[in-house]
Automatic annotation (TrEMBL):
UniProt xrefs under InterPro entries: Cys_Synth/Cystath_Beta-Synth, TrpB-like_PALP, TrpB-like_PALP_sf
Transmembrane regions listed in the UniProt entry: none
Boundaries of every Tryptophan synthase beta chain-like PALP domain copy: 23-331
Organism: Triparma columacea
Protein name: Tryptophan synthase beta chain-like PALP domain-containing protein
Lineage start: Eukaryota, Sar, Stramenopiles, Ochrophyta, Bolidophyceae
Superkingdom in the source lineage: Eukaryota
SUPFAM superfamilies associated with the record: Tryptophan synthase beta subunit-like PLP-dependent enzymes (SSF53686)
Amino acid sequence: MVDLTFMLGDDVKAFNEAHPATPIKLVGKAEFMNPGMSHKDRIAKAMLDKAEARGELIDNNGKKKTILAASSGNTGCSLALIGTLMGYDVVIITNKKCSAEKCAHIRTNGATLWMAEDLPTMFPNDLEGVTDYMAQETVLCTNYPDKYFSVNQYDNLDNMEAHYDSTGKEIWEQTEGKVTHFVMAGSTGGTIMGVGKYLKEKKGDVRIVLSDPHKSHLVGLLESDRGMGSGTLDKVNNLIKKEGGVKVEGAGKGELTKIMSHGGVLKYVDEGIPVHDFDCFEECRNIAKKCGLLVGGSAGCNVAASRVIAKRCAEEGPREGGVTIVTLLCDHGIKYMSKIFNDEWIAKNDNR
């Protein structure tokens, strides 16, 4: 855990000075320290170990299948690392939004990398008109079941269970049960749902907060489900028409995954906070300058949303036992040197 309390705003600092016995704290779990440089190592190992134990990685002739997975990047890096070490061939499908560094990382870890934009030409009989990388994984694994094993990370409940079994438990133990808020972005939904489930079972009043890039649909879908209307969804759709989609990699979605829908719409999530893409990136740069840590855009999104929660807690007044906000520093910023930490890229793309 990394103590990020000193990065909170002046209002929170003033609150902590006035109420030293019940301070507001922000800590980040340093998932970029994992071998694959992201929290996705957890789900990659869990999903492959369980699939292997069920015999799903072997065809009817006893031959190893090729592991096939759609990924925005980090899960692909982790599957390439772990799948290759387990002795399997690994193929990752991503798209041109994926940073050059993550593409290189996937290949370096031993996997074959396919770009979604190229696959309809590579598989004309299977993928004509199919451009979404998740759909491409499904079609290829359905059409060639003896050749490919579908990781299906967006719908695979082993993903959620990995974070229930490990990340949630670790957060509880590392904070000695003092965690009051958990802030996390969603892509597959595995982290926020798995950790949320674990923490809610331990302490029912823990607040689970979704941090979400401002052009993602997840906050709007959550609000719509909770009877708060469709205003956010309408705003997001208009923004996408004008500006295109989410710039943050590995955070936000246009629709709910099956993991996010498990038991209801984002069952364990109490609220969502939208964060502008470039506020996420600015936060990454702040973390680099003030903490000496390089982290990716989803971590920036998490810290920015955590600031909102901390400010609100300061406005609400002292709480018995204080406030401990936990978030994830999901991946290493070295994967985004050509984007987040590139002044020219920022200047060209920042539309705030």
